Amino acid sequence: MVLNTLSGRFALLTFFLVLMAEVLILVPAVTNYRLDYLESRLERAQIASLALLATDESIAADLESELLQNAQVFNVVLRRNDVRQLVLSSPIPGPVTATYDLRESGFVKAAGDALAQLIDSKDRVIRVIGEPVKQAGQLIEITMNTAPLRTGMIDYAVNLLFLSALLAVVTALVLNLAAQRLILVPIRRVIQHMTAYAAAPNDPRNVITPDARLTEVRDAETALAQMQTNLTSALKQRERLAQLGQAVAKISHDLRNILTTSQIFADRLEDSEDPAVRRAAPKLVNSISRAVTLCETTLAFGKAEEPTPMLSRFNLAQLAAEIEEAESLAASDAQIEFVIDVPPSLMIRADRDQLYRVLSNLTRNARQAIEATRQPGTIEIGAGEDENNWWIRVGDTGPGLPEKAREFLFQPFTGGTRKGGTGLGLAIAADLVRGHGGSLELLRTDEDGTEFMLRLPRDLGAVAAGRASAAAR
């Protein structure tokens, strides 16, 4: 249906607006028509009376009647030299019901009189007073009936409304054609591109090229093109992630079997007679256990979710010491100093293995950032607690994060903090912390270093809410 289209409703609205404007003009137009009609009767009556006065004699009754009929009045009174004179007269069919003095009639009163005239359908006799033309006297007064006046006013109003309606239709059609050309055609082009893109989002040919002349439509095309480009990139990335996920799941499955066998052999190292081997054996076993756990959780991640945190209470200082030792062994020749500012007696409730992964990712990123500068640096792990949270702070004196990493900090494959990095470390860390009901945020990053803050809630209710939120993501 035409009225269900934008152009149809625009044309209909234009029609009614133009028609409404013409209706508003109708009242003053009809008022002016009435005044012009009454003034024309006065002028005809004055011409008829002056013709009689020019003879200085009386005229026949039939000629007087003809003059009055031509002027469409019943009698004519002239006032000249302060003398009121009945110039022409004929029988009046009824009493005079109203007197209108055109010399003192303002627009508001004239408009009211015109509306009253239209409403009153009876033929009445009225008196009209005005000024003679060419100053041929002091005033002229006539009596006349209202039927011809009302008929003329109605005909004039009908003709004016007809012309207004015709003008409204023509205006609506012209504006509709203009809207079709200037607005609807570019909008349809945008819709066609959206439909084509929805059918084949991976085809770059379906990305719209902004070329509209109208600024607003061009801005919409530009925004659509940007959205299509970003969505295409995201779809390609998701496809790569799906392929990568399948590959990682297969690798993790086989690697888990290999590490399980290595764990069995590592257990036997505890029986070695070498004291150094016996001291290193538990650390090796723990490392292999973590690797096995990581493989198992990677397989679970292939199902689009991290395992539920297994909460337990443990000493945070000991965990920080393990991370320091592991990162110290992995450090290159760069002089990196580790500072552990964790109260020795601080006990927190979390999943120990998952928190190890979070802090290990943060410290590893810090170590690699410092190593890239080939300058000495410091990595600090601090912790504490307040009424609602345990907090852990990881800072470094590295060169700070690049601009891209700040913009996509916790997004995988886009928020890499170093050249060649995948950005998975921070994404995994943030996901694990959310699973605890906590938060991981960047406190600062500049040329003096970078600092992250991790908060874990002490309230078990907040932990449950965090698990639900992480599952929903």
TrEMBL record:
The chain crosses the membrane at residues 12-31, 156-179. Pfam families: HATPase_c, HisKA. It is an enzyme of class 2 (transferase). Residues 250-460 form the Histidine kinase domain. InterPro entries: HATPase_C_sf, HATPase_dom, His_kinase_dom, HisK_dim/P_dom, HisK_dim/P_sf, Sig_transdc_His_kin-like_C. Its EC number is 2.7.13.3. GO terms for molecular function: kinase activity. It catalyses: ATP + protein L-histidine = ADP + protein N-phospho-L-histidine. The keyword Transmembrane helix applies. This is histidine kinase. It comes from Paracoccus pacificus.
